[in-house]
Amino acid sequence: MDRTALVTILVDLIIVLKQGREPATVIKAALPRALVPYYPIAGRIVEPAPVHRRSPTPETACGSWASVDCGLKDVNSLEHPLVLSKEELLSFAPPEVNEEESIFMLQVCVHFACGGFAVGIRFSHTVFDGLGAGQFLKAAAEIARGHARLPVEPVWCREAIPTPPKLSQGHPPSVAFCFETSVFDIPLDHVSMVKNQQCSTFNVVTTVAWQCLTRAIGLQPHVDVHLGFAANARHLQRQLLPQEDFYGNCVRLPHNLCLFM
């Protein structure tokens, strides 16, 4: 996937913690040490010829922090919708830098009067998925706590994953993402009303929410509605990735994935 323009996006992540002693100083000291075993993250994506091949070269970013005269409760703990603007919380590359080349940017963006703080993170989906980014962040957190050893040893070995023929020939799939953010609060008693022993909570919530959406937009009866969602596929790649500590992308694009209403 990193050889196509399919996932050349920066994923925005805001982590809110209720307390921390000198978080900016601690995180700034821990990150360089975490980047030693996770060396590909300390890079920048470049475009050698041919264009569809991508590789990282060293460079990363770590920002500073600011304090505000309010507590986390005053900003709803930064739940969606954000009371503070995203531009205030996330780190952005300077004008002379192409953000698509960036792999990882972090800043301890806000220190609240209550002792809590927020960390704004942007990571490239070209290099790793959510689980991989979480593994790296957990490693940095363990180092910040003073642990001498990482919780897991990172595994890169992306060369073990075969490239589909169309990608190796420079023909990226024609897939585009357009995200809309919606927040639903579904009480557990509502889930229990339609759940049975053969059905998981995920299945219930996904199906009912999708039924409501398709009905609300007035689709014609018997129209096939496609549903896509992110899932960990590492357990399906054991022959290629024998270790569980792989932190790169592990994504498969499904074909003809439908949910019939």
Automatic annotation (TrEMBL):
Pfam families, per the entry? Transferase (PF02458)
- Keywords on this record? Signal
Classification via InterPro entries: CAT-like_dom_sf, Plant_acyltransferase
Name used for this protein in its record = 3'-N-debenzoyl-2'-deoxytaxol N-benzoyltransferase
What residue range is the signal peptide?
Answer: 1-20
Family named by the database record: Belongs to the plant acyltransferase family.
